[in-house]
Amino acid sequence: MRLLPAWLQHYRRADLRDDALAGTITAILLVPQALAYALLAGLPPEVGLYASVLPPLIYALMGSSRTLAVGPVAVAAVMVASALQQFADGDSARALAGALWLALLSGGFLLLFGFMRLGWLSYFVSHPVLSGFSTAAAITIIGTQIPALTGVNGDRQAAFFSFIIDITPRLNDTQLSVVAAAAATITLLLIGRFRLAGWLRAIGLSAPLATLATRMMPLVIVASALLISSHVDGARYVAVVGDIPQGLPPLSISFLWLDGWQGLIGSALLIAIIGYVESLSVARILAIRRRERINPDQELLALGATNMSAAIAGGMPVAGGFSRSMVNFDAGARTQLAAIITATWVALAAFALTDILAPLPKLVLAAIVVVAVTQLIDFKSLWRTWRYDRRDGLAQLGTLLGVLAFGIEPGLLLGMALAIGLYLQRTSDPHIAVIGQVSGSEHYRNIHRHSVTTWPALLLVRIDENIYFANAPAIERQLMDLIAQAAEAEHMVLVLSGVGNIDASGLEMLESLAQGLGDAGMTLHVAEIKGPVMDRLAGTALLNTLGNSHIHLSTQAAVDHLLGESQKSATN
Amino acid sequence: MRLLPAWLQHYRRADLRDDALAGTITAILLVPQALAYALLAGLPPEVGLYASVLPPLIYALMGSSRTLAVGPVAVAAVMVASALQQFADGDSARALAGALWLALLSGGFLLLFGFMRLGWLSYFVSHPVLSGFSTAAAITIIGTQIPALTGVNGDRQAAFFSFIIDITPRLNDTQLSVVAAAAATITLLLIGRFRLAGWLRAIGLSAPLATLATRMMPLVIVASALLISSHVDGARYVAVVGDIPQGLPPLSISFLWLDGWQGLIGSALLIAIIGYVESLSVARILAIRRRERINPDQELLALGATNMSAAIAGGMPVAGGFSRSMVNFDAGARTQLAAIITATWVALAAFALTDILAPLPKLVLAAIVVVAVTQLIDFKSLWRTWRYDRRDGLAQLGTLLGVLAFGIEPGLLLGMALAIGLYLQRTSDPHIAVIGQVSGSEHYRNIHRHSVTTWPALLLVRIDENIYFANAPAIERQLMDLIAQAAEAEHMVLVLSGVGNIDASGLEMLESLAQGLGDAGMTLHVAEIKGPVMDRLAGTALLNTLGNSHIHLSTQAAVDHLLGESQKSATN
Known about the structure:
The structure is a homodimer.
Chain A: H1 6-9, H2 15-40, H3 46-50, H4 54-62, E1 70-71, H5 74-88, H6 92-115, H7 127-144, H8 146-150, H9 160-167, H10 176-194, H11 196-202, H12 207-232, H13 265-290, H14 296-312, E2 319-320, H15 322-330, H16 337-352, H17 354-357, H18 362-374, H19 379-388, H20 390-406, H21 408-427, E3 432-438, E4 444-446, E5 452-453, E6 458-463, H22 472-485, E7 491-495, H23 504-519, E8 523-527, H24 531-537, H25 541-546, E9 551-552, H26 555-571
Parallel strand pairs in A: 6-7, 7-8, 8-9
Antiparallel strand pairs in A: 1-2, 3-4, 3-5, 3-6
Helix pairs in contact in A: 2-12, 2-15, 2-16, 2-18, 4-14, 4-16, 5-6, 5-13, 6-13, 6-14, 7-18, 7-19, 7-20, 7-21, 10-12, 10-18, 11-12, 13-15, 19-20, 20-21
Protein name (chains A, B): SulP family sulfate permease
GO molecular function (chains A, B): secondary active sulfate transmembrane transporter activity
Keywords (chains A, B): Membrane, Transmembrane, Transmembrane helix
């Protein structure tokens, strides 16, 4: 690994102004969000601040993305909450130590995967599953904010549906003052996000200035809420953030002395995978815009170290967040220096602002969470996926409903298993085409889709899938049926252009097929075996049975050979 | 479904003698084996007899194999033992009812799979996994017989390794009389199986007579053991079978009133799958020899009904056994009438022989089990598999060691997961070849393996795997690397002859690739899209972006088009 990150080695002074401005703007958005995500995770609000200082600094030194902003993110926060609910069972000291363990373990997993170059493991969270998961996680998160937004007491429940069933009857106790304040805050935040820039430009502000003002909206709302709350002693009416310890805690590993941390391993693995997948997607989206490359294995190492630093800095699991990174990117960040400046501001806030933040109503933070995660909800993608591919759609829908019905982790696992199971099911009865020659070419295609030339003595069959244990019996059955239908066929040519791999079960099936065809007086030929498959087959009983004269480079070569042979036998 | 089985509709009188003889010989072998497998399952010996009467009759009426012999089998028996160990915890009445539930549930699963045509689910037990599992199950079974063969007390343990660790220190208490008798029995059985026929022929017996005498060997051993044991009051020295209730029990469903049967569902599913896979393999091996066809879905229904009948007949889970079926087949069975005759003999034995069998030493039954399962042990296949395909070999070894280390069910599940995981891992970083024209043909092959013609402006790339979520990122990375190396390339042609399927994640990747190439001033073309893939792609953004002029039937067509185009632009 290099000693200095690439962005620092070639730092251009011209980028300094952009980075400083972007870092400052991001910090403004980040402080309230950090508090909110910590509360979402069921932790004291200051934990969100701690996780926003050291981790982004580590990422800035190790990560391969120039603009990914790392810190507490909503989905990881709700996964932490779900993991700690049973583990800590209301004991807040235990929850805090558990969160640090989760950060340490998920960081450890990521480092391990990085060293073992197992980045491909994360590919097994398919786009549809990730999309279904994000939508369901966002809905679950919004559910968890209902108590804070209504003043009703609600037990945390593992799953959204049971949470809703549990809380619905209690909504009679809704505190109107809380709901009104929450509704006002959400409305203002939504206006800030979707309308304000347009209005400001309509009254003549320049576009950059309008955008800047829009960005400041959450800050304005938080500041106003603080002013009002401290003026009227808001704590009498609504739940407030309360005292936050001043400053940053010293680096510490005292959390390591926690009983039963082993129970968090599974959750940590899931948090690591989801955090990594989310970070990598965001990093790649940003990299494409700037034509940069992301190194997936480097990202594993960087995010692993980042999470381990979050553990000893008293924080919580972190990842590259979508909204955080987009703000940073849109604000003009050029390099990770912006992230370093953000982290500095947050550290200053932890020293200077904690007293000021005490009277902040929690409902304001809840409103910020709700508005932030709303953009994760995407039902259109479900419809789009379904239309293109039923199996993908089923996996996405299964993940979505699984998370809502059974909770964050079981739903995610269900979705991943569903995606893999459906893929395997698809390959278990593959497409097999009888093919013929496209006239005027040496190209062979499906006789049912193209007008092609065929010969009664030749049965040309193309197998469109790897031949492996899960489909070898189905392929054998399909081939047997084709043979039974082709009464005049003397030779069967298997065209293996679509076969990238033949495993031991597939080999056995082909051997018994060659045997069976021989007994029935037909010969088996193969064509277009790919190099890697041929390498493996060399020296097997199958190739010895077939002999070199039955193995052809191309379908055309097989046809030429066999037609020549039958002409010869016709002449004799 | 037809009312009469095919073999009965067209029964030839000429087959009657063969069937009667084969049925009788099989019965002779079956009676002691049925007792032994019941003991192996941790059940009273007579349960093995009950399971050998009604179930084969049901299979004879419903099955699609003419010679498969159904009854208690060793692997299913040890799976029953493993499932009931925790469930019954030494309560023999509970174990008995549990065994009936296992038969009922596994029968129910098979019927359900049959009605839903889910026979392909069984394909997911690959040959290597099944082979590793059989070997490990046989070793485990031999382990469980050590107490009976040595007179040492041994706790049943879930897994072979812990069993061995547990029993080794106790082997000091070995009873020499038991070991001597067991060694003699095993030796005689092995001689009967491997040597006797040769010796008899050497002294002038005809081959059929010698084979018949060999078949009678277990009967001779059992009869001698009974004679000796009743003469010297064997129960004083060794454990004996003891009183067996006379006759067959009435059909009964009283076992249904069992608490906690739900705990057996998982085990029943595994027993169903393994029993089905074993039965189907045996049936197919026999069918190939007689050129008959096996209907996998019909087999599901038949074995389902067979197991449910075993439950109400007071038996245990049954399957088509390898040794049982081979004896039946070798003895000349033509149809399922032989199985009906066997079942009749076993029923008669249950009425007539139970008193006589009481003094039979259990060590004789243990010896029969050991000799029977020895033929399941196959390490050569492990080596063969490993040499052909490392991943298959790993799955086989993993199953073998998993069963020995963690027990029958966890080991099997581990093996299945390993096989699937390794297959997916293989597809997750697929082979991608840059191709060129084989001279004098329209065939295109890997530039590194064949001497081919290429054109600097054209980058022809063949992808040898479906494009799906688990490999889309790796394919993108490989393509990007190829593009970076091909500095002069103006057009990239993706040859999709090896792609049987593109899922939503794959589509997204291709869309972003088309976009990226466009930005870089290159054009993307595709060739040899298979029919089913094209159907799915129709109407997607990708095809709209590409346009018809960038989609080519064959690689040759793409090359002709692109070379024509560059000539035109060169002329202009």
